[in-house]
Amino acid sequence: MQFKHPEILYALFLLIIPILVHLFQLQRFQKTPFTNVQFLKKIELKTRKSAHLKKYLILVTRILIFTFLIFAFSQPYLSNINASKNIETTIYLDNSLSMQSKGEKGELLKSSAQQIIENLNSKNTFFNLVTNNQEFINIETSTLKNTLINIDYYPNSLKLSNVLLKLNSINNNKTNNSHETILISDFQDYTPESKVAFTNVNNNFHVIKLKPKHTNNIFVDTVSIVSNSSTQITINAELKSTKNISENVPVSLYSEAKLIGKTTSIFKKSNKCNVQFTINNTRNFNGKITIYDDGLEFDNDFYFSISKSQKINVLSIGKPSAYLAKIYTKNEFNYTNYSIQNLNYNSIQNQHIIFLNELKNIPIELSTSLVNFFSNGGDLVLIPSENTNLKSYNSFLQKLKLGNFQPKVNSEHLITSINFKHPVNANVFEKKVSNFQYPKSAFFYPINIKNSSPIISFDNRQPFIVSAKYKLSSFYCVASPLNKTVTNFSQTALIVPILYNMVKNSYKIGQLFYTIQPKNEIALNVKLKKDQILKIDNGFQEFIPLQQNSQNQVIVQLHEQILKSGLYHIKNNEETIKTVAFNYNKNESYLDNLEIADLEKNNSQISVYNSISAIFKKIDVENKINWLFKWFLTFSVLFLLIEMLIIKYFKI
């Protein structure tokens, strides 16, 4: 038995007062002489005994009256919890896209929300509702019901470890509350860390795993271009299934809302297949691949956008180079080469990437312009000369805050090591190559560039070409001249993909689609005036994103502003300068789940249930308070009646 106000029990010490009153008669009796009373002695003895018994009975009843009355005011109760604490229930309801799966009563998210509403019976309990994107703290039952009615899916799911941290943080910040935590999810995103996360819970967790009726799902995983000619583009759509199946799935291709092609994908006892469409390469193409599947709905559509290719501006300052001219052809690049004497400094800010090709010195005027170009997002490639003025070079590198060149090393070395993980080498090699015809260099300048990453290296582990990323810009540096008298690197097959990807990576264009995630960046080949801003519109939603301007491009930064898949138009005033496609993360399409049946064995604070109603019933039983003050009041009144009866009917 517990007491809501145990301090009132100190009043029990006051019960000594009636005891003192009954045991010590303070009244003084005066003797009066009276004759011939001997015959009354027997009656007097009996009367005294009756009077003492009556007094003791009255004493006991009064003590019991006050005792039960004091206990009643201290509000006794029977319960597993402390009644002085507030009962607070925290509910995590997973609203990730995988909760679109159909259960026995419809979509898992919607049916779960409805079942919670049906089981909310406690009027005095405060609730916290946590979803993947929102937190509702200290809300009452009516507010919780309205919130659950309007709950919607969120494309960015949370890791289970982050969910548990968030729930523990909410509960630990409130010390005078009795906490109950309910976890409702399909536990779709299973990673090895999930079980570890559950070992650290420090509150009562009631867990329910929602199970879909069907665990197979077919979806469009990705879209890519397999061939691109001047007249046609062939698109490949890769379809996946969560299980090996033998099934034909209809696939449609749309341009905006217009149907332009249909085909059928054929799964042959596998979980993957491909379909292809051919479109005209004459204009921008804003497309959508649609399949028909009874599983999850959100991944049946896949959006993509193909923009007409735009040329990249490449400027080479210094010696004319035949290999650069051959790599940067007119159909993809605007390549120009100028000596320092013929250079138009006003053209520097219009470039995407600039090569400093075997300059002996870097003049102060050129250095100032290049520093401004680099700080505004332009890329630089530095190729030294045979007679490099290190003082001039290092002065330029110090202005860029990059590093320095070391004195020349006049010894021949082979170029033997390729960094296959570097972005410049991505998708160049089908497999790692360790045995190839090594190019060589007669001498080199040791490179000391901050935060650099080697692209290829010498046999002594000194880098031959390095890169460094600084904010919006990239800096590339070669350790020796690339002319034939110094190195035969320009005559090997390696030079073409490396220099080609350097320039291609200087500006990201032509990306078919983006994945919806908390942060996205889009590079746009556009030059804005100072008072111009870009906005994004999809016909239903319009907003102004964060944007960073450089000389020839704008970087648009998105922070959870796009939450629905589709085609979005980036506009300058009312002119659409680019259409981009966004798709949901395909991790939510896989229906592999965490097995949670053994969680109860590993942690006594975790209880696993089969239904939402069972959770609420268990919580109601655990938190039920049986108040006893009515019984104590009843006994107090009862003994008051007994005292009155004793006084009235107990004759002395």
Key words describing this protein structure:
single chain; 652 residues; alpha/beta; Rossmann fold; Immunoglobulin-like; 5 domains; nine-stranded mixed β-sheet; 35 strands; 24% helix
Task: Describe what you observe in this structure.
- With 652 residues, the protein is α/β, with parallel strands linked by helices.
- Helix content is 24%, strand content 34%.
- The protein is built from 13 helices and 35 strands.
- A nine-stranded mixed β-sheet has the order 16-15-17-18-25-24-23-20-21, with helices on both faces.
- Helix 3 packs antiparallel against helix 4.
- The longest helix is centred in the N-terminal third of the chain and has 33 residues.
How many helices in DSSP terms?
13
CATH class value of the largest domain? Alpha Beta
Q: How do the strands line up in the largest sheet?
A: 16-15-17-18-25-24-23-20-21
- Based on CA atoms alone, the radius of gyration comes out at 42 Å
Helix/strand-derived class?
A: alpha/beta
Query: What fraction, in percent, of the residue positions are helical?
Result: 10-25%
CATH topological fold name of the largest domain: Rossmann fold
- How would you sum up the global shape? elongated
Main beta-sheet annotation: 9 strands, mixed
* CATH architecture level-2 label of the largest domain: 3-Layer(aba) Sandwich
Distance between the amino and carboxyl termini: 41 Å
Number of E-state strands = 35
The H-level CATH homologous superfamily of the largest domain, spelled out, is: Class I glutamine amidotransferase (GATase) domain
Unreliable stretches, pLDDT < 50, 5 or more residues? Answer: none
Q: Residue-averaged pLDDT, rounded?
A: 83
Strand percentage lies at 25-35%
Tally of distinct domains: 5
